[in-house]
Amino acid sequence: MIVRIMGEGQWRLADSHLVELNTLDDELLAEMESGDEDGFHRTLGALLDAVRRLGEPLPDEALEPSELILPAPDASLAEVREMLSDDGLIPG
């Protein structure tokens, strides 16, 4: 699967990593619903770090279709709210 972090680039991740990403996505959603801005930024950072740690970065010139698009590290709670589906940022 190809994951894009807005403003940074794309990473190729094995589907087996979805469980870890979904756990962080669930935490992020709960923090957003409760208005916990500090927790939101901490968990968003952890989610993006997991993509960077688990994935293989694609070259800058590669433009693969992204299956997941994640917000930039400095995205606000309001900006991320606009990106959400019923499942959070990561479907499933």
Structure description:
The chain has 92 residues and is of the alpha+beta class. The chain is 46% helix and 14% strand. It contains 3 helices and 4 strands, in the order ββααββα. It has helices at residues 18-34, 37-54, 77-83; strands spanning 2-5, 9-12, 56-57, 68-70. The protein is globular, with a radius of gyration of 12 Å.
Short description:
The protein has 3 helices and 4 strands; from the N terminus they run ββααββα.
General form: globular
Beta-strand percent range: 5-15%
Structural class: alpha+beta
Give Rg in angstroms.
12 Å
Oligomer: single chain
Summarize the helix and strand pattern as letters: EEHHEEH
Count of β-strands: 4
Reported for the largest beta sheet, the result is: 4 strands, mixed
Question: What level of helicity do the residues show?
Answer: 40-55%
N-to-C terminal Cα separation, in Å?
A: 14 Å
Q: How are strands sequenced across the largest beta sheet?
A: 3-2-1-4
Query: What's the mean pLDDT score?
Result: 89
Low-confidence stretches: none
Number of helices: 3
Which characteristics define this entry?
four-stranded mixed β-sheet, about 45% helix, alpha+beta, about 90 residues, globular
